């Protein structure tokens, strides 16, 4: 089934000029970038986006890293896009990420892990709506 998922290219990747390299892996996996914008997340946006992790010990550092420098927010479309992108990203911890995945190639650490991708179709819809209106997504 054709799905849409939400992606963030994180500050550790934008800082190292890796936006194009990450996008090449995404497109090489058959996912289409149907919306994309480079922004600086506000603290309020980052806190809301990662609200589910609010009680985790890394929450404060996560919010400060995500707001320190620009990110690229994206909508990706393709067959089973949610699962397909999670496979392309690789494990959250880059040491456990499979060869060829974005995190294996580019991530610096579990915190600075280069990309975010939605973990379910339901969350994809919620996350996309936080950054894009329907008319900004061109499939
Ligand atoms: P992400 O997929 O964006 O979802 C939550 C983020 O928290 C995760 O990627 C990491 O960037 C960050 N993080 C930092 N430490 C941890 C940890 N120990 N476990 C999971 N996520 C972590």
Quick gist of this model?
With 139 residues, the chain is α+β, with helices and mostly antiparallel strands.
Structure description:
This protein has 139 residues and is of the alpha+beta class. The protein is built from 7 helices and 4 strands; from the N terminus they run βααβααβααβα. Strands 2-3-1-4 form a 4-stranded antiparallel sheet. The longest helix has 11 residues. The radius of gyration is 14 Å and the shape is globular. The two termini are 15 Å apart. The model has no long low-confidence stretch (mean pLDDT 98). The site of adenosine-3',5'-cyclic-monophosphate has 8 residues, from loops. It is an enzyme of class 2 (transferase). Its EC number is 2.7.4.6.
What is the β-strand count?
4
Strand numbers in spatial order across the main sheet: 2-3-1-4
Q: Outline, from the CA principal axes?
A: globular
N→C terminal distance = 15 Å
| Relative helix content | 40-55%
Which consecutive residue ranges, at least 5 long each, have pLDDT under 50? none
Order of helices and strands: EHHEHHEHHEH
Mean pLDDT figure: 98
For the largest beta-sheet, the strand count, sense and barrel status come to:
4 strands, antiparallel
The ligands bound in this entry are: adenosine-3',5'-cyclic-monophosphate
What is the percentage of strand-forming residues? 15-25%
Number of alpha- plus pi-helical segments = 7
Query: Which value, in Å, is the CA radius of gyration?
Result: 14 Å
The secondary-structure class comes to alpha+beta
